[in-house]
Specification:
heterotrimer; A mainly alpha; B alpha/beta; C mainly alpha; A: MetI-like fold; 9 helices; B: alpha/beta; 6-stranded mixed β-sheet; 11 helices
Chain lengths: 264, 274, 314
Amino acid sequence: MKNRIKNINFILGASIICFMALFILAGKILPLRDPNAIDATLKFAKPSLAHPFGCDNFGREILSRVMQGSLSTFLIALGTVFIGTIFGVIIGAATGYFGGVIDEILMRVNDAIFAFPSILLALLFISLLGPGTYQVVIALGIAFVPSFARIVRGEFLKNRNMDYVKCARLMGASHLRIMVIHILPNTLRVLLNAILIGFNNAVLAEASMSFLGIGVQPPDPSLGRMLSEAQAYLFKAPNYALFPGLALILLVLGFGLMSDSFEK
Amino acid sequence: MKEDIILEVQDLNIEFHDHIIPETVVYDFDLELKEGEIVGLVGESGSGKSMSALAIAGLLSRKDMKKRGHIYYDGKDLLTISRNELRSIQGNDISMIFQEPLTSLNPVKRIYDQVEEPLRIHTDLDKEQRYEKVLKILKEVDLRDPEHVMKQYPHELSGGMRQRIMIATAMIMEPKILIADEPTTALDVTIQAQIVKLLKKLNEQRNTAIIFISHDLSLVSTLCRRVLVMKDGYIVESGPVKAIFEDPKEEYTKKLIAAIPKIDIDLGNGLQDE
Amino acid sequence: MRYALKKFVTMVITIIMVTLFVFLAFNLISGDPVISILGTDATPERVEALRRELHLDDPVILRYFRWFFNFMRGDMGVSYSYKINVRSMILEKVPVTATMAIMAFFLMIIIAIPLGIHTSKHQGSALDRTVIILNQIIMSIPPFFSGILLTFIFGRVLKLFTPGGYVSYQKDFGSFLWYMFFPSLAIALPKATMAIKLLRGSLISEYNMDYVRTAYSKGNSTNGVLYGHMLKNAILPVITFLGMALTDMIAGSIIVEQVFSIPGLGRILLTSISNRDYPVVLAIIVIISAMVLLVNMLIDIIYSLIDPRISFEE
């Protein structure tokens, strides 16, 4: 019963993400208007067949902007999770496997960083690096490292004294080999869940950053910035806020449902 | 019903309904309990002994469990009376202690609050009276330094002390019936003997009837005069401990007896002087 | 008591480490503050004078301690872009952020605890199912978008408040609180849904505990067992989450302030980040960090008060 619900969640989440992937792909394939093309005659055009999502305050096509914005949100989330995973796995694996003083110190630092909301950390890094797309990827990526390191460390700690690891060690396998070939595959399930949750958080964090105007810079579209611009015209053109918001919710919901099915 | 019989269980059947196919775990369970009597209930795990005991204590959830038969106490059928009536009996006239004293105590509440709770539920005593009663019962279960213990939390006590606390909680309302579900299984052998001794003492002083559940036939034989042997949900044998020991009818009972290590705990009133 | 003291010391050490890190980072990366203040075309004499005035030629560690003790005394430096005291810019904004976070925290608790208890008691009921589905959706709505939705529904359609009509707490505290209700709700909603999920799961797992059976055996009613025994145990894992949620809310208020045009710490922080006004950014980040650490400490202490096993083990 419970497993069935979890499977349904996973299928639902995966379908939503597939749908969003197709949506983003359609933006690349279909002959839509350039997301940055301005046309004063189309200012606040209502949704119609020609302009399915309507047009914004500059007469830009909201549909193609949402598609492009979803793509950049997705790519930024991907980059963020990539940085978080790579460094998280390296730090977590080394500290969990070897233990000792370095582990102690690194984990103390990690705990201190972990206690801070990732948005605050990202803001700190942004204020050091300056606003921009790549800066957001780096800032969020670094902010995400501690949570990944924590999870991976726990798994390595659990596995390092298991019989199969001892066995590999007796057979003369090097530490690196044991860590990569033997232990890492055993952490995949947990890691995969962390990656999915990471995507979920990264999408939210990226959207928040660009909403604040410190992420993707104009005129390039991003879901967060579209929402912040749409706010001023909420009554006049609710569709302007609605569609980027919907795209954002679908992305978060999709990853959320998928990660939910991995929980025990 | 005869005069001195305080509990009468007739044809108790218990079915589980939490799976698609209902599963019967207790068949046609019968028991007559006399005032002040100690009855042993023996069997391996899964034989239905704990289920029967939980049913008597009114602790089987009504949702996914189907019970048939009768459990008469004080002229009332515990299986059919209202929740409110049942609650006024639980912890008051019939109380129960369990196998794992650590997990059976609430980890985040002080010992005093846990021992006192039945008084708050069942009586109108004021604070000082309740305190006196708690202190008295803690002394009666042979706890050293009860004033200190009552301020402590379960994790700060030893296994034996925890079980004494459980017994104190169960006995504080001076119940007619105490159901002890493997109360010594989780304890060291020396502590086991002390707990059994304590139960025996309370039984004699207060005339509380005890249903003593165990998989350990030797322990039962030191405490009880009468025993019921259960297997796969059925009572396969019942009668005086001595008779069953000397002449077991069932193959299963023979196995149980053969499994007893040959050490007897002398409690003065055990098998030897029967 | 000793536990609380220990936690306090840990917090102070962490604050020093965090501020040291942030201070060093800003000093390494932010470039020469003299140029930030005077511009690139200042005369060498003026540059030299200002360098001396700001003690920029001292070792960085010395400057850190000078900055730290000044900060503790309330001297937070001067803003590069506004040329005014940072303290006067920031201090009156702190209550705005704090109010929003605290209000959101209580809203979260008011929403989550009754619903968590109710759904765990009536598993599989219509309400339970509705809450589970709604939870999943609300959890996926970022606070700034739910803020926009709330503005649209309660501000524009129902006209319960005037969007953009923020009232300062110094002017009219009642109106201020009423205006803050909606942004607080926006932050509280996604956290509340997570708290419901957690509390529900936690309570459900408590139902199978031995001590629950003991509680029933004493003659407790279902509510007696639930409120007298289970809740305190079930709330333990939730408390850790509540603490993290509160720190997230403090940070999240920066974003939601923008939705509701509230002139709090968030707005100053963002303008200062884009102006590279480092003394202001530094001060705000330190203040928010201190709030976060304070919350973490309080949560640890509250946890140890509820769970007697904690203070004993450490």
